[in-house]
Amino acid sequence: MKTLNLYALEGIPLIQQGDDIGAIICEIAEKEKFSFEGDDIVVVTSKIVSKAEGRLIDTYKVEPSKETVALAKKLEMDPGKLEVILRETKRVLIARPGLIVTEDRLGFISTGAGIDSSNTLPGPKGQVLSLLPEDPDVSAKKIRQAIEKKIGKKIAVIINDTFGRPDRKGSVGMAIGISGIAAVYYPPTKEDIHGKKRSPEIAQIDEIAAAASLVMGQTNERRPVVMVRGVDFQPSETDKIKDLLHPVTKYIQDALEAVKQAKGEK
Amino acid sequence: MKTLNLYALEGIPLIQQGDDIGAIICEIAEKEKFSFEGDDIVVVTSKIVSKAEGRLIDTYKVEPSKETVALAKKLEMDPGKLEVILRETKRVLIARPGLIVTEDRLGFISTGAGIDSSNTLPGPKGQVLSLLPEDPDVSAKKIRQAIEKKIGKKIAVIINDTFGRPDRKGSVGMAIGISGIAAVYYPPTKEDIHGKKRSPEIAQIDEIAAAASLVMGQTNERRPVVMVRGVDFQPSETDKIKDLLHPVTKYIQDALEAVKQAKGEK
């Protein structure tokens, strides 16, 4: 039987700005008697990376522009929060009451530039938002280096977050930063069970991110770190999360096409 | 440590039309000394379900219409294959050379109505395509009933397939049929780690489908059945895969909005 095992560390302390997540993972793993093996994949939720990197903003300190205040009224959103979202946004893709879908500065298409207030301590005067890490690939690399130095084995690190999708309800764990693993997986076997040629492209890092998300939980589970063991993956020292992303022009082109088709144009 | 374990059965025979997949799973599980526990989730790839249900079509037997031949030329596709796709399609959403994205009769938005020729035996005169199961929820229920009868415990079944996404490269395992599990997961805990109110909607069945896909493989791995143990899920006797899907009108509305925003309209 081929097996795949996920282990979520319990007892990770509340992460503070400046904390060394890689070192904390090693410490808790030792306490929990988890021993790393080579080719383990460590999935870390972006939330604690953002906290460690101080990517938190008190909305009461944010001065929304006049344009933002007007748009916030239209979208029925908090102007301070919208201001923070827009600062992290390259392009707004969908904007209607209750929903803003953006291409953020990292190239991700998500709701509100991946900004939220879950699992942050409330500020003295209100909401504290967490932004995505400055550069999630760099964050992943730092965590990876700290762990590899300690254990003397090669691993991979994926930073994940939960995103919505246009055609399906609910959120799904997806990869937002990687280190040590290829962005797209091309299986080494090039034939199907009947010997026909195949060359599938698999978004394996998203599948791993989704699997880890199942045990991390989304409320007060406090399991922000999950080790995944048993995935046949392609190591890479150079791949970045951008290598998984379609350019947003493709998204727009597809949207254009969908609208044309729906209208019955040729 | 919270753990999540996936077990892929090895030695599942090549599935033929008329095979009872639930019975085969029980048989191989016994041979492999896998013992089911209550609340295990069995993920079955749609490919073997389609085969068991005889959802295979030899393209040489298909007579494409004149319209299909013309469209196939434009899209640089095989006319026979396109004819089969269109018969399973409710609405074409994107159509350009090399790519056709459809809303199929089941409501899924995917490339080519989820039809492909991987892991099918070549027919006497060419390509054999597999269509999605007639009603994947019904297929899931049958498999579930066969297993539950044999083991005397409650489980859940998910039929999965791999889909592309508009903003990210590569394919990801997603759920296309369910039995015994809620379509959308609402965690029973309603607070985050700091006691703030939360009510996340989680596409847990897609996360499970993605996790299982990691071990199933996409070429000649022959691991079409994966048992998932350790997920906190909400059982349901009534939920269907449709309960996870947004109506396609939302997709069109979002596409419209994306195009408007990209053009800088208000």
Summarize the structure.
Two copies of one chain form a homodimer. With 266 residues, the first copy, chain A, is α+β, with helices and mostly antiparallel strands.
Number of strands of chain A: 10
How many H/I helices of chain A?
7
* CATH architecture heading of the largest domain in chain A: 2-Layer Sandwich
- How is the largest sheet of chain A built, in terms of strand order? 1-10-2-8-9
- Gyration radius over CA of chain A: 20 Å
Describe the sheet with the most strands of chain A: 5 strands, mixed
Which shape of chain A, going by the Cα principal axes? flat
The CATH topology of the largest domain in chain A is 60s Ribosomal Protein L30, Chain: A
CATH class of the largest domain in chain A: Alpha Beta
Biggest interface and residues each = A-B, 89 and 89 residues
Strand proportion of chain A, as a percent range, falls in 15-25%
User: Which stretches of chain A are low in confidence, meaning pLDDT under 50 for 5 or more residues running?
Assistant: none
Structural class of chain A: alpha+beta
SSE arrangement of chain A, N to C: EHEHEHHEEEEHEEHEH
Oligomeric state of the chains in view: homodimer
Amount of helix of chain A: 25-40%
Number of domains of chain A: 2
**Quick check: average pLDDT of chain A?**
95
N→C terminal distance of chain A:
51 Å
